[in-house]
Amino acid sequence: MTAVEDRRGSTRAAGVVGMAILSSRLLGLIREMVFAGLFGAGKNLDAFLMAFRLPNLLRDLFAEGALSTAFITTFSKKIAVEGDESAWRLANKVATLTAVFMSVVTLLGIVFAPQLVDLLTWWSWSPDKTALTILLTRIMWPFMLLVSLAALVMGMLNAKHVFGPPAMASSYFNLGSIIAGVAIGWWLDPHFGARSLVGLAIGTLVGGAWQLAGQFPSLWRVGYKYHTDFQWRDEGVRAVLTLMGPAVIAASAVQVNVLINSGFAASLGNGPVSWLNIAFRLMQLPLGIFGVAIGTVTLPLVSKSAAVGNVDEFRAILARGIRLAFLLTIPSAIGLAMFASPIISVIYQHGRFNEQMTRETAGALEFYAVGLVSYAVLKVLTPAFYAIGKRNTPMIISFFAIGANLFLNWLFTFRLGWGHRGLAFSTSLVATVNFLLLYALMRTHVRRMETRQLLIGLGKMCLAGAVLALVCWAANYWWLGA
Questions:
Q1: Within 13 Å of residue 310, how many CA atoms lie on the same side as its CB?
Q2: CA torsion sign, 133 to 139 to 142 to 148?
Q3: Residues 363, 382, 244, 151: is their CA dihedral positive or negative?
Q4: Nearest-CA neighbor of 52 among 363, 271, 273, 376?
Q5: Phi and psi (nearest 5°) for 110?
Q6: What is the mean pLDDT of the chain?
Q7: Is the per-residue pLDDT at 247 higher than 60?
Q8: Of 34, 143, 213, 214, most Cβ neighbours within 10 A?
Q9: pLDDT the model gives residue 73
Q10: What whole-number distance in Å separates Cα of residue 261 and Cα of residue 466?
Q11: DSSP-derived secondary structure letter, 1
C-alpha cells in the first residue's frame, strides 16, 4: 500500500468512526437530556451520576484505556509478524483472563460499595443521599464487566481494520439505557422520584449487555471463535500485561484526578456534580467525534509501523493525526465556549431543569472548552508511546498531573472563589500541560516531528478561529441577545 493510499484509507476510516461516534454522542446527549428533564440537576441526579462514576471510572482505567491500548498494540504486532491464527489464540487467552479478573473486581465493588461512596463524596453527603448512592452503585457494578469485554472485542475489530461497527457499539449502550431505564423507572415510580433511579441503574446494565452483544456479528465475520483458555503463561499475554502495568498506573493517575474533582464538587453542595457532568458530556461530543475517532484509527497504524521499524511512517502518521485533531477541534472549542448558554438551554432546559441550572452548567462548559484541543491531541499522542515501547513516559507525566490538578482545584475553586467553574478550568489546564510535555518528549524519541509545519498550520487555524470567534460573538450579541 502506497503512502497516499494509506493516508486516504486512514482518513476514510476516521470518517466512518467519526460518523458512528457522532450517532453515539447524540444518543448520549439525548440520554443526558432525558435524565436531566426527569430529575433536574440536583440531589437525585447527583446520586445516580456519582454511583455510575465508580464502575465507569474503573472502566476507563482498565477497559477502554490500559487494556484496549495494550491489547491492540500486541494483537496488531501478532497479526503483522505471526499471522491471524496466533493472534486469535492470544485473543482467547486475554478474553478469559479479562472475564475472570473483572468478575472478581465486580464482586469486591458490590461488597465495599459503602466505603467507596464515602471516599468519593468525602463523607460530605446526607445519610439518605449516601444510602441511595450505595444502592445504585451496587446495581451498576456489573456494567464494568460487560463494558470491559466490549472494549476487548472493539480492540480485535480495530486491529482487523473494522472500525464502524465497534464505534456504533456505544450507540447500543445509550439506546438500551434510555429505553430500558425510563421504562423500568416509570414502572417503579410514575412520578420519577428517587425510587425510579433503580430503573435507570438496571437500564445501564441492559445497555452494557447490548454494547457487548452488538459487536458479535462483526467479530464472527472476521473469523474469530471464542474458546475458554486459561493458559495465561504465554508470551503474548505477558506482553499485554507488561504494557498494561504502566498504562494502568498512568490511567490511575487520571482517575485519581477524577476522584479529586468529584470530592471537590461533592463538597460544594447539591448541583455541582450534575452541572460538571452535563458540561463535560457536551465537551465530549466533539472530542468523541474527532479526537477519539482519529486516535482509534491512528493506533493500529502507528503500532504496525513501530512493529516493522518504519520510523518515517510512524512519524508521518502521528503528525497527520495531530494536525487533523487541531483542524477539527479548534472551531469546535470556539463554538462550545461562545454558545454555551444557548446550547444548554435548547438541549436541557425543560422539565425540572431550570434557568439557574442552565447558567451554572454553561459556566462549566465554557471552561471545559478551553481544554478540548488538548484532550483531542492526547487521544492521538498518548497511545503512540505504547506503540514504540516508551510506556513509562505517560505514567510519569500523569503523576505530575495529580499534584498540579490538586493545587489548581484548590486555587480556582476556593482561593479565587470560582466554585465548580474552577474545577472545569483546572481540568483544561492540566490537559494542556500534559499535551505539551508529552509532545516535547515524543520529539526526543522519534526526532523531527514536523513541528515547524504543525506550528505554521496551527497559526493559520488560530487566525481562522479568531475570525470565527468574532462571528460567534456577533451572533450572540445581535441575534441571540446574550
A1: 12
A2: negative
A3: positive
A4: 273
A5: -65, -40
A6: 85
A7: yes
A8: 143
A9: 81
A10: 31
A11: -
How far is the C-alpha of 76 from the C-alpha of 364, rounded, in Å? Answer: 39
- Residue 450 near residue 317, CB atoms below 8 Å: no
- Residue 342: what are its φ and ψ, rounded to 5°? -60, -40
Model confidence at 404: pLDDT above 80: yes
Question: 196 is written with which cell numbers?
Answer: 425510579
Consecutive H or E run containing 262: helix 235-266
With 0-12 / 13-18 / 19 or more C-beta atoms within 10 angstroms meaning exposed / middle / buried, residue 99 is: middle
Question: Which has more pLDDT, 247 or 352?
Answer: 352
Helices (H), 308-371: 311-338, 340-348, 355-370
What are the sequence ranges of the domains in the chain? 1-39+271-482, 43-245
For cell 498506573, the residue is 249
Of 162, 214, 215, residue with least CA distance to 13: 162
Quick one: pLDDT at residue 131? 92
Of 39-43, 166-170, 261-265, the one with minimum mean pLDDT is: 39-43
What does the DSSP 8-state code read for residue 2? -
